[in-house]
Structure formats: structure tokens, C-alpha cells
Design a protein that fits this description.
single chain, alpha+beta, Trefoil (Acidic Fibroblast Growth Factor, subunit A), two-stranded antiparallel sheet, 5 helices, 12 strands, about 25% strand, CF161
């Protein structure tokens, strides 16, 4: 008699009970939320969430490393960074802020399946920072001989291996393809490749000078932290920085590399074609004490 006079609110009308449902809808909803939370926590532990992937990627790419110390010539087997000291490190340029490092890059698509640099990842120019696994490389011989410890000479072919991939079954080499598939390379012509082919071979050339020719310097030792030109053996193009192409990355703006010989009216390389094989300068104990 009183049941017919009960009026349900709009909120209560969505809650339906029947003898076929053991649990009330409210309890089912609470149980479902608990289940979703458990799934979320499990995915976070396994690194399946985008935020967890980003944190893992940051940890892998920015892990600090120690470069090979040298106060003179550079040798095969040395861990180095490629540093362009005469180009702006920001967009737009800021007076007094110069220098870009060559380093590996992960895109938003790459992070979905890997949190470390893999085959096919692009190479970019990043503002100067302390040595990390993403921007350090190992110089190794290109003639299939173990030349570890031998000094690198001008015009001698070598390979650049990403330092973090040295102990992998398939190391990653810095590669440039002169005729890539249209639409695939985009702004970044350099990339990491697990295949050691002719397109992964490089050589160091001295910068153009008025007092001495490159021919006279061929065969002499390459010194660290001095201006040089990095030349791609297969195409005879010089490695450079494309200051007209900046893109937004995970850690700020990054600059695209360039494979082109850029000369001024006097036949000298422009600043974006000039590099340094960068390593810390070794300081003797005697110098430290003074």
C-alpha cells in the first residue's frame, strides 16, 4: 500500500536491482574501479604506461658516462663526442650560447615500443650537456682489423658506434644514405643502423688553411678538441648542422644534421661544417698540485 506512493529520484532510477543480480550495482561499480586500479598499477610496474616509458627513456638516454681522456691525438677505441662549437645552441640564437652535440633521438612513435636507442632511430643536434650515453660514440676501425689504441689519422676511414650499444650482439653505427626512400628520412638524414655497410664509413679532414694544404696533412694524427671536418666516405659530403631546421623534442628544441659541403667565397668551410672530436683534457698530477 505504501510502496505505490514511493517516488524515486532521478539518480535512483539508474540503479536497478533484480533477483538475478547477487551484488548491488553500486558494489559492482566499486569492484570494477578497484580492478582498473590494479591493472593501472601493474602496467606502471611493467613500464607499459606512457609516463613510465618516458621516465625509463630519460634514464637510459641521459645516463652519464665518462669519455676517454686525452691531451693529444685521438685513438681507435676511444669514447668521444662530436661537438659543433661554432653554431648557436638555441632557436632563436642567443648571444654567447654556442655549441651542439651529435646524439641519438627517440620520437613519440619510438617510445611506444622501446625506451632505448634502437636500429632506425635518428641522429640530432642537441645543446651542449655533460657526456651521456645518447651523445657519446666509439671510434672503431672500418677495415675489419683491431686497431684499438692506434692513433686516428687524417683521411683514414673509421666507424662511429653508439657507446651504449657496444656490448650488444648488433652494435649501432651512425649511417647516412644518399638516396633515401622519399618521405621516410624527413628532416633527419642521419640515423643509427645495425648494418656495417659502406654508408657507415667516415673520415676526418683538416679545415682549410692558407698556410698548408690538406694533402700535406694527410696521414698525420688527429688531435682532440681541435676544429676538423667530418666527411662521409661514400658521398664525399661533409657533416654539418642545418640551422634552418629545428624541431621540438622531449627535452626541448633539437636541430637537424646536414650532409652538405658548405663553403664561403674563399673556399673555406662554414661554421656549421666545423666539428671537434671532443674529449676531456687529461690533467697531470703536477698541474693539479699547482
Amino acid at each position: 500500500m505504501f510502496g505505490n506512493n514511493i517516488k524515486l529520484s532521478d539518480d535512483d532510477k539508474g540503479i536497478v536491482y533484480s533477483n538475478r543480480v547477487r551484488l548491488g550495482n553500486w558494489f559492482e561499480a566499486a569492484t570494477l574501479e578497484e580492478y582498473k586500479l590494479n591493472i593501472f598499477l601493474e602496467q606502471m610496474k611493467k613500464g607499459g604506461l606512457t609516463l613510465a616509458r618516458f621516465r625509463k627513456m630519460t634514464e637510459n638516454l641521459n645516463a652519464p658516462t665518462i669519455l676517454t681522456q686525452s691531451s693529444g691525438s685521438i685513438a681507435f677505441g676511444s669514447k668521444i663526442s662530436l661537438y659543433a662549437p661554432h653554431v648557436p645552441s638555441s632557436d632563436p640564437p642567443v648571444e654567447g650560447k654556442l655549441g651542439l652535440l651529435l646524439g641519438g633521438h627517440l620520437t613519440s612513435n619510438d617510445i611506444a615500443y622501446s625506451q632505448q636507442l634502437e636500429d632506425g632511430c635518428t641522429i640530432i643536434g642537441v645543446p651542449y650537456q655533460p657526456p651521456a650515453l645518447s651523445n657519446s660514440f666509439i671510434i672503431t676501425s672500418a677495415d675489419y682489423c683491431d686497431r684499438t689504441g692506434e692513433p686516428l689519422k687524417y683521411n683514414q676511414e673509421f666507424l662511429l658506434i653508439l657507446s651504449s650499444s657496444k656490448n650488444r650482439k648488433e652494435p649501432l653505427y651512425v649511417r647516412y644514405d644518399p638516396d633515401p626512400v622519399p618521405g621516410l628520412c624527413g628532416l633527419f638524414p642521419l640515423y643509427l643502423s645495425k648494418y656495417n655497410v659502406s654508408n657507415t664509413r667516415w673520415r676526418v679532414l683538416p679545415v682549410q688553411r692558407p698556410d698548408i694544404t690538406r694533402f700535406e696533412q694527410e696521414g698525420t694524427h688527429v688531435h682532440v678538441n681541435q676544429d676538423v671536418v667530418i666527411n662521409h666516405c661514400s658521398t664525399n659530403r661533409n657533416l654539418g648542422i642545418n640551422l634552418g631546421h629545428w624541431a621540438l623534442g622531449f627535452f626541448g628544441k633539437v636541430c637537424a644534421p646536414l650532409l652538405k659541403t658548405c663553403l664561403d667565397v674563399y673556399g673555406r668551410e662554414l661554421p656549421n661544417n666545423v666539428w671537434q672530436i671532443h674529449t676531456p683534457i687529461a690533467t697531470s698530477t703536477k698541474e693539479k698540485s699547482t
